[in-house]
Amino acid sequence: MITGTFNISYIIMRLMSGMISNSRSNGKFGKYGGKYIPETLVPAIEELESGYEKYRGQRSFCEELDYLLRNYAGRPTPLYYAKNLTRYAGGARIMLKREDLLHGGAHKINNTLGQALLAKKMGKKRIIAETGAGQHGVATAIACAVLDLDAEIYMGSKDMSRQKMNVFRMELLGAKVHPVVSGTQTLKDAINDALRDWITNVNNTYYLIGSAVGPHPYPTIVRNFQSVIGREIKNQMTEVYQHLPNAVIACVGGGSNSIGSFHQFISDSKVLLYGVEAGGKGIRSGEHSASLCAGSEGVLHGMKSYLLQDQSGQVLATHSVSAGLDYPAVGPEHAYLKDIKRVRYVACNDDDAVNAFLLLCRYEGIIPALESSHALSHAIRIAKKMDKTGYIVVTLSGRGDKDMDIIMEYTKAKNAPMKKRLMKINHK
Ligand SMILES: *Cc1c(COP(=O)(O)O)cnc(C)c1O
């Protein structure tokens, strides 16, 4: 996904000094979304729009994607009743939607397979993407390998040295990783280079965005590919438990696993929906990534949404213990769902997320991603307040193997409060 603190639309404007266009089909969620892009990108975006409209309902496309999701990625994923954690939380039943069991270890594959297949149908042989921590780059490389497409991933050289394993993974999977040595050598410069690439190679190149963000039609495309999560939750709940969930909870970075979990339930007004943002060191500290809880309306990465920005519109630096939530904006549909109060957005801080992480390890034998641990923490918090006969579904967006280093740091002896928590959990 796109993470970082740089304003794409600003970069494109600077690069191409083109006109801002927000015309044609508007792709709005209330006043949010749209396409804030320069003229030079309009043909590419229009081609994507018509390509998506053409193939989304086409039988062979749906069958091919369905085959890959089932037999390659591992769908449907289980819906697991976390009995031990439920007993610990002492309230409503906590159900885990196990996206962590997918190939690649997270929900990202739902989107990369969908978009890569779309690219292939549209006759684009070359896929580009940018990546920060490398998770989206790896998911893109996987999808391109299996669909025989060329993957080129832009990554800041500083990020590359911090995330050597993901660079190596991408290369093993056949992707070319372009080190970006300009600027701060991180994501914002990688985005810059990826966009420059897309603008010059639109004819044969597809830009594969990693979350429900960016100009229309990306937020809708990504949401639709991720909606399989919520469709399965609904089927599993009604078939096995003859009951809709009382609440669905998911973490929000750019917002793809959450919108994918929520979409099917938007019109079921009795189902409470919670999006959990990264509260970092606390909203008051300013070191967080909670764009919906603490941000304001603005334009970034080709869309209008909530952003973390200062008075003059400069995008602020963000922080989260989980790289996947460390993003200064959020998908536009979430901004709309917040305003109409259909989804409640809350923030969970680093310590509470790590605590929930430790609890799931010890109580259920599942090592969750730190991103997902934010959602888990909120589920534990609200379970107590809900009736024991209720069901809370938590989307476990990914597994936590990637987070071992961070957890080791956190639970070191010098972090006394965390050590104490760990001891308490160990002596349950
Ligand atoms: C990338 C990632 C996220 C955040 O992305 P969304 O688009 O908000 O879903 C969450 N969880 C995991 C495991 C991730 O890898």
Mean pLDDT: 90
Distance between the termini: 37 Å
Number of helices in the DSSP assignment: 18
Bound molecules: pyridoxal-5'-phosphate
- The unreliable regions are 1-24
- Beta-strand content: 15-25%
The counted number of beta strands is: 16
Structural class: alpha/beta
Biggest β-sheet description: 6 strands, mixed
Helicity, as a percent range: 40-55%
Shape: globular
State Rg. 20 Å
Strand arrangement, major sheet: 5-6-16-11-12-15
Provide a quick synopsis of the model.
With 428 residues, this protein is an alpha/beta fold.
Would you kindly provide a written description of the structure presented here, covering whatever features stand out?
This protein is of the alpha/beta class. 44% of the residues lie in helices and 17% in strands. α6 links the parallel β7 and β8. The longest helix has 15 residues. The radius of gyration is 20 Å and the shape is globular. The N terminus is likely disordered. The site of pyridoxal-5'-phosphate (PLP) has 20 residues, from α12 and α16.
List keywords for this structure.
single chain; 428 residues; alpha/beta; six-stranded mixed sheet; four-stranded parallel sheet; 18 helices; 16 strands; binds pyridoxal-5'-phosphate
Describe the secondary-structure layout.
Blueprint lengths: L7 H9 L3 E2 L6 E2 L2 E2 L3 E2 L3 H15 L2 H15 L5 E3 L1 H7 L3 E6 L9 H14 L4 E5 L4 H12 L3 E7 H6 L1 H9 L3 E5 L6 H14 L4 E3 L10 H9 L1 H14 L5 E5 L4 H7 L9 E9 L10 H4 L1 E5 L2 E5 L24 H8 L3 E7 H15 L5 H14 L7 E6 L7 H7 L5 H11 L2
Parallel strand pairs: 6-16, 7-8, 7-10, 8-9, 11-12, 11-16, 12-15
Antiparallel strand pairs: 1-4, 2-3, 5-6, 13-14
Helix pairs in contact: 1-9, 3-5, 4-15, 5-6, 5-10, 6-8, 10-12, 11-12, 15-16, 15-18
The site of pyridoxal-5'-phosphate (PLP) has 20 residues, from helix 12 and helix 16.
